[in-house]
Amino acid sequence: MTQAEQLKQEILAKTKEYYELVHKPMQEKAFVAGKSRVNYAGRVFDEKEMSNLVDSSLDFWLTYGDYSKQFEKKLADYLGVRWTFLVNSGSSANLLAFYALTSPLLGDRQVKRGDEVITVAAGFPTTVAPIVQYGAVPVFVDMELTHFNIDVTQLEQALSPKTKAVMIAHTLGNPFNLRALKEFCDKHNLWLIEDNCDALGSTYEGKPTGTWGDIGTSSFYPPHHMTMGEGGATYTDNPLLKKIMLSMRDWGRDCWCESGVDNTCGCRFSQSFGTLPKGYDHKYVYSHFGFNLKVSDMQASIGVAQLEKFPTFVEKRKENFSKLYEGLSGIDALILNSATPNSDPSWFGFMITLADGVTFSRNELVEHLENANIQTRNLFAGNMLRHPMFDSMVEGSDYRVIGDLPNTDKIMNDSFWIGLYPGMGDDAIGYMVSKVREFVK
């Protein structure tokens, strides 16, 4: 072993010691009802994530590198897909996924400005933002209030000659009706993008969510199913979409050489493109108006360690959901989310909705829980159409709405969710149940 290798091993050993001294006691801290904060989500990690991070930093390869390649391969294997691409956030993953559909390489199936994309207004804004930013037209359909996902009975009504794609998220880990969506998209030759950011680890008919459509997306922001701080991914089995996403993620380049590698194809200076001079350096030929959405290798190193733990994270989320569901069942004033038929959700959160006619408001219940040190969250935007970002938008030209979205408004007014992440123990689960029941009683 060289002196440098020996020193590196000493540093990694000290890193483990530091974790044991500083971070482990915090993660194992005893829960004290009423005093301990019950967060809706949080990081679950050990010395492996920290050691990988330090190992990567010592190599000082700051951009996409070996850990990134490892992560992409391991995530693809876990999902059972051919290709995954790391990006710097889940929102960037949605951006890349949608913009891939705008590539001229797709011919008649290219999404062009003015084309329509079916989606929902109840969710996170960056599922819809890429559609608007490109100049396509989002078409909003309502939700159903049993599984709190898209109302698939409105799909045919939303369809028009301009419809090119469907782009929606699985609500808090609960898969939407993928069978109905897939059959609808196949019937009408539409693209399907699954925003899987809140549902990594969920399955529908035994197949992972995010792999039913043409492209799936994930987020690795700390509250999500696994984390690398910031980060996200897209995944696909389609070779052409793979080529487009790789180009658009990396500045829109035509070249497919990996970072730090030149002339993989062996014809870097001998090809012709557009009206460029023959032999123009292929590393600087651009076939798309792209971005730079790559993640750093240090972040990917954390993700590699997280993926090893990921199956246990999924099981713990399912266990915590079951305990919350059992503890809160039978309260007439509350509607609890339940798993979509034929699905096995990797739950992101536990959603609670007030039944019609109750004598209290969502905010009154939420304030009661927050005052008891229990963190709560609304279902993100609630109804995106009611936010200031839509003030300058013109219905009918900039976007379309199917009906009045009454269930979306119900979710906006009467729904919220609490946490069930893997770091949450039975004492915290029981405390949340007791505080909800205390208020309703």
CATH architecture of the largest domain: 3-Layer(aba) Sandwich
Radius of gyration: 23 Å
Structural class: alpha/beta
> Overall pLDDT, averaged?
97
CATH superfamily of the largest domain: Type I PLP-dependent aspartate aminotransferase-like (Major domain)
Shape: flat
Instruction: Order the strands across the largest sheet as they lie in space.
Output: 1-9-8-5-4-2-3-13
Can you walk through the features of this model?
There is one protein chain. By secondary structure, the protein is of the alpha/beta class. The chain has helices at 3-27, 47-59, 66-79, 90-100, 129-134, 155-158, 178-188, 239-249, 297-328, 362-371, 406-414, 426-440; strands at residues 83-87, 116-120, 137-141, 163-169, 191-195, 203-204, 207-208, 215-219, 232-236, 334-336, 343-344, 350-354, 400-401, 415-418. The strands form three sheets. It has an eight-stranded mixed sheet with strand order 1-9-8-5-4-2-3-13, with helices on both faces. A three-stranded antiparallel sheet has the order 7-6-11, with no helix packed on it. A hairpin with a 2-residue loop joins strand 6 and strand 7 (207-208). The termini are far apart.
